[in-house]
Amino acid sequence: HDPNLLVGPQTGDDAAVYRIGDQLLVQTLDFFTPVVDDPRTFGAIAAANPLLAGGVELRRQTPPVVLRGVVGPEERFDLMVCNPPFHASAEEAEAGTRRKWTNLGRGPQTGRNFGGRGGELWCPGGEEAFAKALVEESAPLGARVGWFTVLLSKVATLDALKPALKRAKPAAVRVVPMAHGQKKSRLLAWTYGSLR
């Protein structure tokens, strides 16, 4: 048992709360994804909603650039949460779906076993390339972002990121194991700020 994990899967919550130094990291598993692929259409939908009008600003990046230009020069954020595309291509995503359906004893079925659309699910180089770019692009932002986080589905990705993290020179790096049923993942968190 990790004493820093204050809320996890044992409570049935849809979020985790993890103590990092004197701060708490809250990671929720609820992601609201765009209902359309076109960013202009999504922006128009958000702008038409009176509860969101004026309060939503869309900043879209196209891999391999994932973070550069997202944080303005005078902006500061306590936490950046990133749920990267897990697959390198649509074909890889479909192969993963067929494998999962087969492993569940349902035989190869059509249709995804996960939600999301195009660029949310795959990008060139998949999870590893996306997360590596995120680490590399985080360094120039430094302490303007309190903690950077990325959800990693593959343990091999964590190992592949170690050289990039070493080059980026964050003040601290934490790995939070996560599991839901048989699905195991990990949250990688890093900061350039002082831990006090």
Explain what you see.
This protein has 196 residues and is α+β, with helices and mostly antiparallel strands. Helices cover 28% and strands 24% of the residues. The protein has five helices and seven strands; from the N terminus they run βββαβαααβαββ. The strands form two sheets. A four-stranded mixed sheet has the order 4-5-7-6. A three-stranded antiparallel sheet has the order 1-2-3, with no helix packed on it. A hairpin with a 2-residue loop joins β2 and β3 (23-28). The protein is globular, with a radius of gyration of 18 Å.
List keywords for this structure.
single chain, 196 residues, alpha+beta, 4-stranded mixed sheet, 3-stranded antiparallel sheet, 7 strands, globular
Offer a concise description of the structure:
By secondary structure, the chain is an alpha+beta fold.
Morphology call? globular
Q: What is the structural class?
A: alpha+beta
Helix proportion: 25-40%
> How would you state the average pLDDT, rounded?
80
Pick out the low-confidence regions. none
Largest sheet report: 4 strands, mixed
Distance between the termini: 25 Å
Radius of gyration, rounded? 18 Å
Strand and helix order: EEEHEHHHEHEE
* Strand content range: 15-25%
Number of strands: 7
Number of helices: 5
Instruction: Give the strand order, joined by hyphens, for the main sheet.
Output: 4-5-7-6
